[in-house]
Amino acid sequence: LALTDAIKRSRMATITALEPGALCLRIDPQQFDFETSAQLEDLSQVIGQVRAMDAIQFGIGIRHLGYNLFVLGPPGTGRHTIVHQVLEEQAKQEPDAPDWCYVSNFEQAHKPRVLRLPAGLGVTLRDDMQQLMDDLRSAIPAAFESDEYRARRQEIEEELKERHEKAFDELRKRAEEHSVALIRTPTGMSFAPTRKGEVMSSDDFHKLPEQEQQRVEAAVTSLQERLEAVIHQLPQWKRESLRRARELDREVTKAAVGHLIDELRKKYAAHSQVLAYLEAVEQSVIDNADDFRHQEEGQEMTFLGIPVSRAAGSATALRRYKVNVLVDHGGAQGAPVVYENNQSLQNLVGRIEHLAQMGALLTDFTLIKPGALHHANGGYLILDAHKL
Fold first, then answer.
1. What is the distance between the alpha carbons of residues 260 and 329, in angstroms, rounded to a whole number?
2. Does residue 32 have a pLDDT over 60?
3. pLDDT for 105-161, tens place per residue?
4. Per-residue pLDDT tens for 247-293?
5. HSE (side-chain half, CA atoms, 13 Å) at 266
6. Do 367 and 354 meet the contact criterion of CB atoms below 8 Å apart?
């Protein structure tokens, strides 16, 4: 007790009473070069969280797959703000994230192709493809309505017609040499004996000498074989004419499409993926030139086997040439930082939408929508682990 009393007395002896004015710290405002604190930059450091900040910096510095950063702490301590702030600063120092686009796979429509493009180029390609389709809607019909195309198409048809006429003329002349006529009947072509250029009746024919009848019958048999050979060749000649017409159509379409595609090839010469896509587009347009030509009124078109109107069918057919910009990073700087609060499956991994068409639900690559994982690709995704 004596010792305790001595300590108390020693402490009381060292305490000095203060005047009221000494209880307030006064700072001379003349030492500052700003009017208000609003003119100052925000603090970039977090006060009192040195170990936490070191751990965050260490975590985001691990550049390997399979590593994630988990931040724990009681509510109200600024976890989200701190992490978002640090990631934003880190993301500014990293390369710009690319754009991601879906385009049609013309060989396998159910397996669309993906294009990885520099930031901002996805939207540019989408707009260029839309302009290309608008140009082709005018260029291709104009090419098929030109006098040159009509003349060449008529030439093919005339050659087929002349080939038919020549074959039958030769057969007709050979028949006349044997006093036989080539006549057309409701059931087809046939031969009949003639006398002085007139077709003989059955009774008159049987009045001829037996030797003459045999000669005519032998001639008719030979001519019939020749006629069958000619008739057998007709479909082949028709197919050849159609093949030449298709080649002409492809040639005309390629001429109309080529210079428009070449302009885009020059623009995207540094991007091999786009060049390969443009090559496939050109081939598809040539193969499907009718989609760009004016359809006849009342002509029925189908999509996936379902009848649709001419206008709807044309629009649907041209959807294959659209570019679905899944993720656009145009105007962004650095890597993306995405915070997803509503962590549903669709919000994370995206979704595929459908269109109602004649009572059926249809979809294609243009209806693929992105999720948070797509938007954060190449950067950082912030999630609430407990909600996830």
1. 27
2. yes
3. 999 989 999 999 999 999 999 999 999 999 999 999 999 888 888 888 888 888 888
4. 888 889 999 999 999 999 999 999 999 999 999 999 999 998 888 88
5. 5
6. yes
